[in-house]
Amino acid sequence: MLKILEFLFFFGLVYWLVWIYPKKRALKKAANTQSTPPPPPEIYKMVSCSFCKMQLPINESFEYQERFYCSLPHYNEINPQGWLGCAKQVPSPNYDARPQGVTIDTVVIHHISLPEGRFGGEAIEAFFTNRLNPEDDPYFATIAHVQVSAHFLIKRDGQLLQFVSTRDRAWHAGVSQLQERERVNDFSIGIELEGTGDVPFEREQYQSLAKLILAIQKQESIQYFVGHSDISPERKTDPGKSFDWLYFSQITKIPENKLPFGMDSR
C-alpha cells in the first residue's frame, strides 16, 4: 500500500512539473503581455536648419553654438544672412550697412596680436566688441577707445571666429584704395590672422583660411585677394613678410590674376 502511494505521489509530481506548471506560466505570461501597453515611440524636438530653414529632428542635425544644420555642407557654408555655420559667432557692434548696390569682390587679409607679439587669450575678441579693459595692459589703454572689427578671425590653432555678417560692412580697412576705388571696406570682406609680420603663421591657420575662402567664393564673386598693406601702404604692413602668398595661392587654387600684388611675400 505504501509503495502504491509513493508511486501515485511521484506520478502526480511529474505530471505537475511537466504539464500543469508550464501551461500556467505560459498563460500568466500571455496575460501580462496583453495587459502591458507597448512603449510610446520616442519623440525628438524639431529644429530649424540655420542655413536653409528646413525642419528636422534634433537627433538628425549637426549642432554648433546652439545652431542646427541639416547637413555638413550647410554647416560649412555661409547662409543667406551672411553667417558661416562652422565659425564661432562673436557679434560686434562695429559695423554698418554697405552702400546700396555695391558688389563684394575683394578679400583683405590682416594680422593682429594683442598685446602686440603675444598670442592666445580673448583680447582680440574683446577689442572687436568694445570690451577691452585698458587696465589689463599698458598697450590696451592706447587702443581701448578705438572701434574696429573684421568679418573673421583665425586664431593660432585654426579656430575660426566671425564678428560681422558678410552682408554688412565691417570696419577693418580704414583709409584705403584699390585700383582707384577708395573706401575698400565698402566692397570687401576682412580676415584677421592672429600673428605678426615676423612670426610664421601656423599650418592650421592656412587650412582654416582655405576653408573660409572656399565658403566666401561660394557666396560672392571675389576678384581680388589683397593684404592690408597693399591697399593702405603708408599706414599698414600686415599681413607682413611672414604671410606666404604662394602657399596661400596653392592651397586655395586662386589664380595669379586674382592676386593683383603678386605672390611674393611683402
Question: What would you note in describing this structure?
Answer:
Helices cover 29% and strands 17% of the residues. With 266 residues, it is α/β, with parallel strands linked by helices. The chain folds into 2 domains: 34 residues; 173 residues, 3-Layer(aba) Sandwich (Lysozyme-like), CATH 3.40.80.10. The strands form 5 sheets. Strands 5-9-8-13-7-14 form a 6-stranded mixed β-sheet. It starts with a helix and ends in a 14-residue tail after the last helix.
What is the CATH topology descriptor of the largest domain? Answer: Lysozyme-like
Query: Mind telling me the CATH class of the largest domain?
Result: Alpha Beta
CATH architecture of the largest domain: 3-Layer(aba) Sandwich
Main sheet overview: 6 strands, mixed
* Morphology: globular
Q: What would you report as the Rg, rounded to the nearest angstrom?
A: 33 Å
Q: Domains counted in the coordinates: how many?
A: 2
Structural class: alpha/beta
Distance between the termini: 118 Å
Q: How would you spell out the order of helices and strands?
A: HEEEEHEEEHHEEEEEEHEHH
Strand order of the largest sheet: 5-9-8-13-7-14
In the CATH hierarchy, what is the superfamily of the largest domain?
Peptidoglycan recognition protein-like
